[in-house]
Design a protein that fits this description.
about 230 residues, mainly alpha, 10 helices, about 0% strand, globular
């Protein structure tokens, strides 16, 4: 038992050294790039895990994760314009057909405004990024809107979770592995539920669909024909 307690404390101290060293911001940056392009992870995760071990670095880690997400957003826009967003997304893990059609319809109908509620829809940012050019979003407005919305999300969500983990560590440093394990379980279960939800052919965002529908005036993709068939 004593050795387990000591090992738990060492994990927190090692994560703190990583966060405080030059590799910490690079890990946060890489997480942002990976999430925005192909890997089904959240850019907040690196900020939360490292920030909980080094609370004084939360702001810096969030800044680097946001920068990585912005760079990944540029890459998805360019790749989608060059090779076709739909073609790329068909080969992207945990992206459903309904996610693709809904995101594209939102961008065609509301432009860059569709990017702001993205974190609360359950649709990955890369689904918007790869289809942005084909959906008629100019590059500069897309870059500005996506960078601002992603930074807001990373700072808000990642920072809040990191602060919660740091507060837990002040009670007992050995709680750090429990915090990381709990965060991992929550992420996996949330991802499973979201993918299952967006596998439905007529799925809408699970969070505040009425507000999103009212704000963006969802276009014709959500209408049905007289025979009950969805137009999307």
């Amino acid at each position: 038992m004593a050795s387990m307690k000591a090992r738990s404390g060492r994990w927190a101290r090692r994560a703190g050294r990583l966060a405080r060293g030059p590799a910490g911001p690079l890990v946060a940056f890489a997480g942002g790039v990976a999430e925005a392009t192909f890997v089904p992870v959240l850019p907040d995760v690196s900020v939360a895990v490292l920030g909980a071990a080094a609370p004084e670095r939360i702001a810096l880690l969030a800044l680097w994760a946001s920068a990585g997400s912005a760079c990944g957003g540029v890459a998805t826009y360019v790749a989608g314009a060059a090779f076709g967003g739909e073609r790329i997304l068909r080969r992207t893990p945990l992206v459903t057909q309904r996610m693709r059609t809904w995101a594209a319809a939102e961008m065609r109908g509301t432009g860059t405004r569709a990017l702001w509620p993205q974190p609360w829809t359950g649709v990955p940012f890369r689904v918007f990024g790869y289809q942005a050019s084909e959906s008629g979003l100019p590059f500069v407005p897309y870059l500005l809107a996506s960078t601002a919305s992603r930074a807001f999300r990373v700072v808000l969500a990642g920072g809040a979770v990191a602060c919660a983990g740091a507060a837990l560590r002040t009670v007992d440093e050995r709680a750090y592995p429990i915090f990381v394990a709990g965060l991992s379980v929550l992420y996996v279960e949330s991802m499973r539920r979201l993918v299952r939800h967006w596998s439905e052919p007529d799925a809408l965002p699970p969070t505040t669909p009425v507000q999103i529908r009212r704000r963006h005036r969802l276009p014709v993709t959500h209408l049905r024909t007289s025979g009950g068939q969805s137009l999307c």
